[in-house]
Amino acid sequence: MEPSRLSPEAAGKPQGLIAKDRWFSIAAYISSGEGGIAAALRKHVEEEARHLSSEDLLSVMDQLYEQISSLLQSNDATESLLALHAIDALIDLPVGGASKVSKLANVLKNVFEVKRDPEILVPASTVLGHLANAGGALTGHEVERQIITTALGWLGADRVEYRRFAALLILKEMAENAFTVFKNYIPEFVDVILKALSDPKLVIRERAAEAVRALAHSNMQAAADCGVKKVKREGIDLISDLPDETLCTIISFLHTDDAVRTSALSRRWRHLWRSAPINLDTAHIPGFCPEQIEVVTEILSEHQGPIRRLHLNSLYFADLDGWFRSPALANLQEFDIYVAKFDDVLPLSVLRFAPTLRVARIAHCSFFEDEEVPVFNFPYLKTLVLGFLSVYEGTLHSILSGCPVLEDLLLDSCDGFRRLVINSQTLRSIGVCNDMGSMSEIVIENGPCLERFVRSDLFRRTSPLRRAPVFRVISAPKLAILGSLTDNVDKLKLGTRVSQEMVAGNLEMLMRGVKVLNITSSGPNLDAVLGFLRVFSFLEKLYIMSSLQKDMQNVHHHEPTALIESLHHIRYVELKCYTGTDSDVDFAKFFVHNAKALELMKFVVEGRCTQKWRTDQYKCLQFDSRASPNALLDFRSYSGHAYPAGCIRRGNHHNEHVLSMANPFDSSSCSHCRDA
Q1: What pTM, to 2 d.p., does this model score?
Q2: What is the pLDDT of residue 668?
């Protein structure tokens, strides 16, 4: 049902005057998705354009800009994303002209100045690129110049992580969508990008590399579109004026095929790629397996410069041991391999990369199973991803103890070990995805820097004898994001104590820093969940994946809710696999009636959510009696690819995002899931 478009003030006016006062509520479309708000805005603006003068139409547009600005001031990510969808829809509408571009650009600039969450900044940058591509000619590119200079200033200033991240997003989009302007800032860009390329955070380095690739690609495209004389005369290829050392640095961040193509730009570039540091990635080598093997062999034998990154994916009959011994790989920094056959042995020669590796991703192979466990020493390794392999417990812990600066660890679909013991001074993020049911215990023995522990796939349909591992926390003072934990009713004494999966001395003190928690619950089981809430006293976001259990009675019989401290802090609750049964309603109603700080409760529903069904749910939940006057309910349906378990579901290269994304339990914050 389309929301009302008349304000209360307009309702009492003569019909002839209503056109000026028609009110369109962007917030009313918060549950309709990107397509819903785009279609509604287009219809609204087109109708107003038919009835109003140009001056009155500008007033209507100003009302929309004000609503967008108001939504972006909210701390709720859903409202901010809705506002960005609205901006994206307005860009293509043939109204507003240069003033629209300038006003939307100022709104987006404010987003980058104020917001710090990647789940907002990333889509905001995409919208900015769309605006630059569509509106540059209308403003004489003045808007782009202001945005570029602001971003360059942030990147060149003292390190502020969220500002540096935002600046790189902006510069990438400007390089891709406003190259006519951006080319004039290439020297300044090169001066500051080197800082970002050596940033201590992997996500910053990756975004910096994307910005460099965007610049190089736009430069090559512009040069290819013009003759050599025109390129020189009009200054299109300004990159070629940079020193060889700088050009080699740019080449080192290009994909393999793009690096090779630079040799065709001009004589100036012809020799550079052969001596530049390069990324050797079979995903960017055309052809099938035999052709890719031939190209890799040729590059390893003939390339004169170092290879910084090696990515090999499912190459049958490749001579891995011979490749690994190549002198070109002497200073390898990033190693990424998915072996073609699961029982293929990873050659021991891979350990020659250990002294220089920063990132290692190893998947789908026999992992040091037939050899005596070697001594592992990875002095600079910061990210380790092991996927789809079997590794002995002793080997795994030997590797971890040999990584003194490790920050990110992902174990995806791995087995062969029963215990995972974490004792690291530097680890910040741990992900354990699809653990194959072999683990019996996870121990956080000493994690002074650990900020998140993410475990997924607790509802796999496996043997009923399979049990979730004991989760033991001894010391993790900075832990802020945790889950998924299972209430596993047979291990729970109905609210008298916490599930036996949580074993520690004083968990309430240990867990005070946890702000985001994901629980899987059979039923869902209210008393089981409340057992966790008593431990996580300062929880702000709660995600619950429920599975149907017949005869579940969600009536709270224990101590007064006032004694549950977390009910004074929870701002967001998401109930996944909600069906609207009596058990579900009683469970959700508890939070609606007792969470005093609740801002949004989201229900992820299987199948369609009709307007009538939603209206009935409001009545069943007795929403008018909510404890928080600011609380909102949001019902979303899922189907097909949009599985509600969150982001953690697509294999190790996708799962790695849970180590760095703002909220690994919110699939809307992951571009891979949003695009599914």
Answers
A1: 0.75
A2: 59
